[in-house]
Amino acid sequence: MHSYEKNGQTIVYQITKKRIKNTYFRVKEGYLAVTTNPGTPHHLIVSYIDLKFDALYEKLSQHHIKESQDEIVLWNQTYRLNIQKGRFSYTISNETIEVKTNKTDLLDIKKTIYKKELEKKLDFIKFEIEEVISSKGLSPLPIRLKYLKSKFGSYHRKNHEITLNTFLARLDPIYLRYVIYHEYAHVLVFNHSKDFYNLLTEFMPNHRLYQKDLKKIAII
After folding, report:
1. pLDDT at residue 63 above 70?
2. Which of 5-14, 199-208, 211-220 has the lowest average pLDDT?
3. Do residues 174 and 145 make contact, with C-beta atoms less than 8 angstroms apart?
4. Contact 11, 57 (CB under 8 A)
5. How far is CA 151 from each of CA 7, 167, 194, 195, rounded to the nearest angstrom?
6. Which pLDDT score, from 0 to 100, does residue 109 have?
7. Per-domain residue ranges of the chain
8. d(Cα 66, Cα 78) in Å, to the nearest integer?
9. Is 135 exposed, middle or buried (0-12, 13-18, 19+ CB in 10 A)?
10. Does the predicted TM-score (pTM) go above 0.90?
11. Statement: 71-214 belongs to CATH 3.40.50.300
12. 33, 13 in Cβ contact below 8 A?
């Protein structure tokens, strides 16, 4: 392991030599993994880390919401997960979620719960969302729910629909609202221009607080 310090902050990195043409930088848990050709000079790796220091450090500092095997996080609360065999259903009681399922993959079980919870929350807030977007002449769009690894949501111009990451069911509901308004703003302004952010501010005046927070949350 090596380390590089800049402005009082440190990035720990590990170099792996392989017979490859290019050099790859990947953020791992707590360190930067560098895979490169045996002939690559060390100072070139350090130069790249220095050039991209702020972006790399931010990724390394991302907040991961974790839980043990018998726990699940829903709407920013951690619950004990009790799984029994049976047709799928679940109930939330105090600090425990009782689940009946014939599935055996734990992550798959959690993903199913995320989707169900997101469906419930969307139904609960739909009138609030519709009232806000109608001020700009927008009508509700079809919303697809999918567990994604790289983004919290997207607007598909061709299909004229929104996709939401079911991972949002793990976070405080305010982030769900932010992502929804963000994607609806893209219906009228497709890029991230000043006009886009002005529109988003009309939808959600304090959106910058949540936008900043989401950048620190890693999807796991």
Report:
1. no
2. 211-220
3. no
4. yes
5. 30, 10, 21, 22
6. 96
7. 2-60, 71-214
8. 9
9. exposed
10. no
11. no
12. yes
